[in-house]
Amino acid sequence: MADRLTELFRKFKAGQIDKKSYIRRMHDMHASLWKYRDFIRDRNVESIKISKDCLTLTTMDGITMICDRDDERSIPMEILNFGDYEAAEMRMMKKFVGKKSVVLDIGANIGWYSINLSRCAPGGRIMAFEPVPGVFKYLKRNIALNGVKNVEALNYGLSDRSAIMEFYYDPKLTVATSSRNLYGDRKKRKIRCRVRRLDDFILRLTPRIDFIKCDVEGAELFVVRGAIETLKKARPVLFLEMLRKWSAKFGYHPNDIMGLLGGVGYGCYYAKSDRLEEIAKVDERTKATNFYFLDGKKHSKLIRELT
């Protein structure tokens, strides 16, 4: 559309279109602005701002995110397309994050969860892990744009080893960045990113961890393996995405994660109408893809309140 606007203006300046026709045709093109105003009425959108430097979307509760023009499934686009972004998951997460909580956001992407949860923990600390340089750039910009002071952005991922790994990266679908080619029908480029074991360093950075969100496109098992000693000591609540189709790309099943965490005292739950339902195993009947792990002893009060 910008090309059409520019071309129309060029023709007017060159005298190829008279002023009356130019105004009428430009007005027709500007009508999209009003169409967007009507479109966002029933969405979690307070405003869309166009500036010379960028385009941003601000939600009803004041979270502002930069829109990446190339990424067709960036969080602002998801909010526009579907009305909101993982609203039920966010409501449940906020039940586990207090004013002084320490939170790890593993697979932070552009910072949606980090920034939202930072508001729940004004006296706490959010550590946002994002290994992909192009995505990390937007994470840093969104943190700054929202004036967030308690989110620390870290430009590496987590796994069961410390290494430089190859990731499949598609600028048009950054949420699917993974060390496996999840979408074989899309063109991707390989990029090299740093990963570390959480057990190797995290307790030197923070003596306490209250909540971990982990969404790493199928590699969740390896994050957990590299963090198992930390989990035994800190006993945080965990939120993990576990998709069978993605874990299969890595040669394991979500039940392997459940078995590993179950062995150190964690039970597995999924959210249903803002409550938690316990689940013993994932099978072909399981519809949930996001799961919460709570320690039976440390989180007994939360389990009683939410189940």
Write a concise keyword list for the protein shown above.
307 residues; elongated; alpha/beta; three-stranded antiparallel beta sheet; Rossmann fold; 2 domains; 23% strand
Characterization of this structure:
It is a single chain. With 307 residues, the chain is α/β, with parallel strands linked by helices. It has 2 domains: 1-40, no CATH class; 87-306, Vaccinia Virus protein VP39 (Rossmann fold), CATH 3.40.50. The protein is built from 12 helices and 14 strands. The chain has helices at 2-13, 19-39, 75-82, 87-94, 112-120, 133-145, 202-205, 220-225, 228-234, 244-249, 254-262, 300-306; strands at 47-50, 55-58, 64-66, 102-106, 125-129, 151-154, 157-159, 163-169, 189-197, 211-214, 237-241, 266-272, 275-278, 290-295. The strands form 3 sheets. Strands 6-5-4-10-11-14-12-13 form an 8-stranded mixed beta sheet, with helices on both faces. Strands 1-2-3 form a 3-stranded antiparallel beta sheet. A 3-stranded mixed beta sheet has the order 7-9-8. Strand 5 (125-129), helix 6 (133-145) and strand 6 (151-154) form a beta-alpha-beta unit. The mean pLDDT is 95.
CATH topology of the largest domain: Rossmann fold
Q: Biggest β-sheet, characterized?
A: 8 strands, mixed
Q: Could you say how many structural domains there are in total?
A: 2
Cα Rg: 22 Å
The CATH architecture of the largest domain would be 3-Layer(aba) Sandwich
**Mean pLDDT across all amino acids:** 95
Shape: elongated
Strand content: 15-25%
Report the CATH superfamily of the largest domain.
Answer: Vaccinia Virus protein VP39
Strands of the largest sheet, in order across it?
Answer: 6-5-4-10-11-14-12-13
Helix content bin: 25-40%
